[in-house]
Design brief:
This protein has 175 residues and is mainly alpha-helical. The chain contains seven helices and three strands, in the order αααβααββαα. The chain has a three-stranded antiparallel beta sheet. The chain is globular. It starts with 9 loop residues before the first helix and ends in an 11-residue tail after the last helix.
Length: 175
């Protein structure tokens, strides 16, 4: 008996989520559900493509770059681990492992927090800032190729405004 097995095709799933009408439920409208699915799928798509290209070039991962960038903006290049966790998209254990690697590579160091001996701070080293600065031109080129080329500057401004709205605690204007 020959039983055919249908293989899962992620591209078909992406197309269905992004193009078909999706179900509304309670306070979740169909357009909002579709937007959420498109956001998740787009994030997965772009991060995978960008990470692949960064890996081919031997550059810092997106996550490592993100940690170094956040620390570069922090006062004196240092944050408590809990504050750093709040600023990145990693789990606590994932952040700890990443900071372990960055520390091993000399890009950050950890010290006991002087104001709270129960906490540790991640501190950007000169080598970490130099590595981040060296990677920026690669990141900019890859982001232009993989992301920005799909949007006009006006599109990008609107997309940024829309994505920043919940971060600022703003609600859309009701029409």
């Amino acid at each position: 008996m020959n039983k055919s097995v249908e293989l899962f095709d992620a591209n078909i799933a992406r197309k269905k989520i992004c193009e078909e009408e999706v179900c509304a439920h309670g306070n979740l409208s169909a357009p909002a559900h579709r937007a959420w699915g498109a956001l998740l799928l787009s994030h997965a798509h772009w991060t995978a493509r960008i990470e692949k290209r960064l890996g081919e070039l031997g550059a810092l991962s997106l996550e490592a770059y993100d940690v170094l960038l956040i620390l570069s903006y922090a006062p004196n290049g240092r944050l408590k681990m809990g504050e750093l966790y709040d600023a990145v998209t990693l789990s606590r254990s994932g952040l700890t492992r990443l900071v372990d690697r960055l520390e091993r590579d000399g890009l950050v160091r950890r010290e006991v927090c002087p104001n709270d001996r129960r906490s540790f701070e991640a501190i950007l080293t000169d080598e970490g800032e130099a590595a981040r600065a060296r990677c920026w031109p690669l990141y900019a080129e890859i982001l232009a190729d993989e992301f920005a080329r799909f949007f006009s500057d006006n599109d990008a401004i609107q997309l940024a405004r829309l994505l920043e709205r919940p971060l600022k605690g703003e609600s859309p204007t009701k029409v």
